[in-house]
Fold these 3 entries.
Entry 1:
Amino acid sequence: MTPVPFNNFLTINIDEINIDTSKKINVEIINTNGAKVYNNSFLTKQKIQINTSQLTTGIYLVRVSNGNASTTIKAVKGNILLDKNETKE
């Protein structure tokens, strides 16, 4: 999944995920409150690009599934500080 962190677009490289691409691929993005903020299905065997400009800065879970199997990846939108004592160089 690129870029890391992502901003206005998130690209999922299906080749890098161990999932059967002969079926429809479903992508869900879930925020830290557990709310589903994105849900869409794709018929592709390569890359999926998602417009994420409407999402706020923060941490998300991206779930990619095909009906039989799923993979969940943690993703970060924007440059956030995870520790209050961390300084930006």
Note: The longest strand covers residues 58-65.
Entry 2:
Amino acid sequence: MGSLPDGDLAPARLRPEVPEDLQRIVHRALAKETQERYPDCRSFQSDLESWLSTQGKTVGLRQIKLHLAEFQQPLTPPASLEATTPSAPARFWQRTLNQRGAHARGAD
């Protein structure tokens, strides 16, 4: 896993409606310092499954896909990233939005 280019892009800034305990999981997954991130995918999966079970949700591949769909909305960069000279976070968002557009068009 990689980190976001700027520690200022906390999940709460991008999606304030995401529950705080889920934000902590995302924050750890995207931590700038390697030693602060999950050591492996199984640890990350375990935390996600635990969170889902506390929400009374069934955990399985199909169910996870359905639950994630609840949070999938069009991504737009925060207004603070719209600058005349693109910063690293602005370039990150532009790449992300371009990739999502290409993926939606089937241009993988």
Note: Helices lie at 11-14, 20-29, 41-54, 61-69, 88-104.
Entry 3:
Amino acid sequence: MALKVYGGHTFKGGRQARTIIAAKSMKEAAEAIGTTLTEMRAYWSVSGNPKELEIALAQPGVVLYERVERSGDFQPINQDKPCAR
């Protein structure tokens, strides 16, 4: 199964942040993010943004957040402290 890049918003440091992950399925992405499949279906989508695709596909399974809105500067989220839903 091919990887897809899912994008949505989470809260990091009290601020809303664009968050992406490359995963085989939406279920796999939801588990990595720490949210429900229902929430993923309602609020997340498959990204078509070329920059997001390049960044996420280079690190499959890693939850990445954009440090500054629309900067394209994505950093891994500390997996010890899952992102808020």
Note: The chain has three helices and five strands.
